[in-house]
């Protein structure tokens, strides 16, 4: 079975009390969540030193909310898992919490938030956990109601884990359809572990996408790929079998081992003529 | 649930509901928690609020005493007004009770301070 949590059970079932507990006790999870929230805030481009009202989508136990508080912002969080919200209550976060399903729409009136963030929640929307769920429709409902609830020139930044290219495409299409501008920023695209996807959505006119971290060499993406393959070959060392280079290397190795070896001549490794 | 959230919350996600605002409050337990006063934030958030809705919400849970019925002109400089707004927006919390949609009459329970806005399959648009 796949390791992705969203393949295992619907979010309100998967994030039960045990799973929710991890989000207060596991310092690694806490650390990663905090880092990703910091990066989301950075991408949100809020005016400096002004306290804002933010929306935290899939706020869970309020780990991301704590980071928002540290930066002086007030937040309102949405989540579908009651157990996670219970943990948030225990942690006594300052933000206010609402139990809701993002796919049913954002239940807020127009223009109230200065920005929205979401850490590791968006991928859940690709699932059809109930018979009545249509992921494409849910995504569209989500994005269009989110668009309405944001103030003009506000941004929404989502850190998420897409499974494949088509999910990325689906997301951006639905977001654009709802009126957003923007796209996906990939931090550390060449690293398996540090690679992080951020969907950056803008209201009120398109602007340049923020630069991704650790992605300087992306311009020659394909060349880099081939260069790496060549380098890997060189590192592996052995030349192709039954070639002259391979034979010479073999003889050299034997000489080093002190074994009796015929000297290299112009006939070494040469094909026999057909007469033989 | 704080009243700032109530001031923004709607039931427009319900099928057949147009605005779904404001939601009527029926509170059985209200508590007051201290929150640090941040005049800058309150000043920024006041223009986004529907003050009338806020006043009526405060009135319905018995916390409207001393709260002006309308936004005072030049409220940015009026610290007394900002403090009152701060108290009603961030410190008063509804712990138990329910919200009622003004159009459909659907009730959303509030428990442990968290309003439950989850819909059933039939209610989704």
UniProtKB/TrEMBL annotation, chain A:
Residues 232-276 are annotated as: Disordered. Residues 55-131 form the Methyltransferase type domain. It comes from the Eukaryota. Pfam families: Methyltransf_11, WBS_methylT. Residues 258-267 have a biased composition (Basic and acidic residues). Residues 201-273 form the 18S rRNA (guanine(1575)-N(7))-methyltransferase Bud23 C-terminal domain. Coiled coil: none annotated. Belongs to the class I-like SAM-binding methyltransferase superfamily. BUD23/WBSCR22 family. This is 18S rRNA (guanine(1575)-N(7))-methyltransferase Bud23 C-terminal domain-containing protein. It comes from Chilo suppressalis (Asiatic rice borer moth). The lineage of its organism: Eukaryota, Metazoa, Ecdysozoa, Arthropoda, Hexapoda.
From TrEMBL, chain B:
InterPro entries: Trm112, Trm112-like. Belongs to the TRM112 family. Pfam families: Trm112p. This is Multifunctional methyltransferase subunit TRM112-like protein. SUPFAM superfamilies: Trm112p-like.
């Amino acid at each position: 079975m796949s390791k992705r949590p969203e393949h295992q059970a619907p979010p309100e079932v998967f994030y039960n009390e045990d799973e929710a507990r991890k989000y207060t006790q596991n310092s690694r999870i806490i650390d990663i969540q905090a880092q990703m929230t910091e990066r989301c805030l950075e991408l949100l481009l809020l005016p400096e030193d002004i306290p804002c009202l933010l929306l935290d989508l899939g706020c869970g136990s309020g780990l991301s909310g704590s980071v928002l508080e540290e930066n002086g912002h007030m937040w309102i969080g949405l989540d579908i898992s009651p157990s996670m919200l219970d943990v948030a209550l225990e942690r006594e976060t300052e933000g206010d919490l609402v139990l809701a399903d993002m796919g049913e729409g954002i239940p807020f009136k127009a223009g109230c938030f200065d920005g929205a963030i979401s850490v590791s929640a968006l991928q859940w929307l690709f699932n059809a956990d109930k018979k009545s769920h249509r992921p494409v429709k849910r995504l569209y409902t989500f994005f269009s109601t989110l668009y309405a609830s944001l103030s003009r020139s506000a941004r929404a930044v989502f850190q998420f884990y897409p499974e494949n290219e088509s999910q990325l495409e689906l997301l951006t299409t639905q977001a654009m359809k709802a009126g957003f501008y923007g796209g996906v920023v990939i931090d550390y695209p060449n690293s398996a572990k540090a690679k992080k996807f951020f969907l950056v959505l803008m209201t009120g006119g398109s602007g340049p996408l923020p630069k991704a971290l650790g992605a300087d060499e992306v311009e020659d993406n394909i060349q880099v790929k081939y260069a790496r393959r060549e380098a890997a070959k060189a590192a592996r060392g052995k030349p192709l079998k039954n070639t002259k280079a391979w034979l010479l290397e073999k003889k050299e190795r034997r000489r080093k081992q002190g074994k009796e070896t015929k000297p290299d001549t112009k006939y070494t490794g040469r094909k026999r003529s057909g007469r033989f | 649930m704080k009243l700032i959230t109530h001031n923004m919350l709607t039931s427009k996600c319900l099928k057949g509901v147009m605005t779904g605002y404001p939601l009527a409050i029926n509170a059985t337990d209200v508590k007051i928690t201290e929150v640090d006063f941040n005049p800058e934030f309150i000043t920024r958030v006041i223009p986004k609020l529907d003050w009338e809705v806020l006043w009526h919400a405060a009135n319905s849970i018995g916390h409207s005493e001393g709260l002006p019925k309308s936004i005072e002109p030049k409220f940015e400089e009026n610290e007394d007004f900002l403090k009152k707004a701060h108290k009603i927006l961030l410190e008063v919390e509804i712990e138990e009770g329910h919200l009622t949609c003004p159009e459909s009459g659907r009730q959303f329970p509030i428990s442990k301070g968290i309003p439950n806005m989850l819909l059933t399959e039939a209610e989704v648009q």
